[in-house]
Amino acid sequence: MAAELTNPAYAALLARRSGNARALVGPAPDAATLEAIILAASRAPDHGRLVPFRFLEVAESARDHLADMLEAASRALTPDLPQPEIDRAREKAHQGPLILAMIGRIETHHPKITASDQWLAVGCALENLLLALQSFGFAAAIRSGKFLETAPMHEGFGLSANEHLVSLIAIGKPGEWPPEKPKPTLDRVFARWNG
Ligand SMILES: Cc1cc2nc3c(=O)[nH]c(=O)nc-3n(C[C@H](O)[C@H](O)[C@H](O)COP(=O)(O)O)c2cc1C
Fold first, then answer.
1. Which end of the chain is less congested by CB atoms within 10 angstroms, N or C?
2. Ligand 1 pocket by Cβ (under 6 Å)
3. Where are the beta strands (DSSP E) in the chain?
């Protein structure tokens, strides 16, 4: 690619990468920085301006409760889950100086805006959040999986019927970056259509 084909925003897009949840260290973003980062997330394109996403900052005092919810969620999925895996599930509640819960609110019967449009807005908000975090020198590790859809997590966060726990995002200073993951080549994601 031609060397002149770059600029700081473009370079930031190419440089975005996930952190390692277990390696994240303090400090977390302070309140003003976190609000600035959430503001960037809220600038996601949003068909119908439904704002189908929101974020909850998990209070330090709530980490043990979150660990209990993660344990209950794991047991809900696998009732006889061995203790080491229960412990691993609980650990997620204590990884990262800051944890955000991201919530998607999808109106499946909206007369005009499709659910996929709404989910795309959620995805764009997530990407904005990750880019804003990295622009302030922070790293993020996204945690997701079937455990998010369990009743202990849904009820634990007090979500409404049309809300989904999209991910738990551990945030902090990178500590050490995990190995860079291979990225798709252009031909995998782009082609010309000649009709
Ligand atoms: C919606 C979503 C959920 C994800 N959940 C997980 C997860 O549970 N565990 C994990 O290690 N990475 C998770 N990731 C991060 C991806 O693994 C990561 O983006 C991918 O490996 C590419 O690496 P990079 O982010 O460093 O470019 C998730 C990413 C997205 C967008």
1. C
2. 17-18, 142-145, 167, 181
3. 53-57, 98-105, 139-143, 163-172
